[in-house]
Amino acid sequence: TDKLSPSRRSSNMSAIRSKDTKPELIVRRIVHTLGYRYRLHASDLPGKPDLVFRPRRKVIFVHGCFWHLHPDDKCLDARRPKTNKRYWGPKLTRNAERDAQHVAALKSAGWKVLIIWDCETKALAPLTKRLVKFLGRR
Questions:
Q1: What separation, in Å, do the N-terminal and C-terminal C-alpha atoms of the chain show?
Q2: SS3 sequence, 30-93?
Q3: Could you report the per-residue pLDDT of 25-76, keeping only the tens digit for each?
Q4: C-alpha separations of 7 from 4, 11, 71, 107 in Å
Q5: Does this model's pTM top 0.70?
Q6: 35: phi > 0 → left, psi -120 to 50 → alpha, else beta; which?
Q7: Which band of pLDDT confidence, cut at 50, 70 and 90, is reported for residue 13?
Q8: Is residue 13 packed enough to be buried (19+ CB in 10 Å), middle (13-18) or exposed (0-12)?
Q9: Is the pLDDT of residue 15 over 60?
Q10: How far apart are CA 5 and CA 8, in angstroms?
Q11: Which residues contact 131 (CB under 8 A, 6 or more apart)?
């Protein structure tokens, strides 16, 4: 059972950010330092990608491991909650299914998609290499 009252739980959940999260800011800082320019959260694209590089037709999503069900077994942040499984199971599964639909729609429209997981933003050197490889020459 939940230890918080419904109103307190609602307050906690509403405080969780969907934009300008710490992992997203890390990725944005690296990309900007490398000299790439981008737009944020394009509402005209499926899933409102976090970073959009229109001339390159490339987008980057920065996903939270918990909320988007990071499939890596070693990622501790991707564990499903042990309480209230009837709520969390379908909710997190829906998030992952919706993500897959957005990626498929973007790819079918000719966009290249990179997903960066929250846990991948902790090691900056490999993340930087991955970003340069995805974005190509400036």
A1: 52
A2: HHHHCCCCCEECCCCCCCCCCEEEHHHCEEEEEECCCCCCCCCCCCHHHCCCCCCHHHHHHHHH
A3: 999 999 999 999 999 999 999 999 999 999 999 999 999 998 898 988 788 7
A4: 8, 6, 32, 40
A5: yes
A6: left
A7: low
A8: exposed
A9: no
A10: 5
A11: 27, 30, 31, 34, 60, 114
Residue 99 CA, chain-centre distance (Å), reads 9
Name the helix (H) or strand (E) containing 126: helix 124-135
Show the tokens assigned to 111. 């966009």
Paired with 52 in beta bridges are: 39, 59
**CA-to-CA separations, 128 to 59, 61, 83, 136, in angstroms, rounded:** 16, 15, 37, 12
- The reported pLDDT for the residue numbered 75 is 83
Residue found by looking up tokens 């942040």 in the block: 77
**Antiparallel, parallel or unpaired: β 58-63 and 112-117:** parallel
User: How many Å separate Cα 121 from the centre of its chain?
Assistant: 11
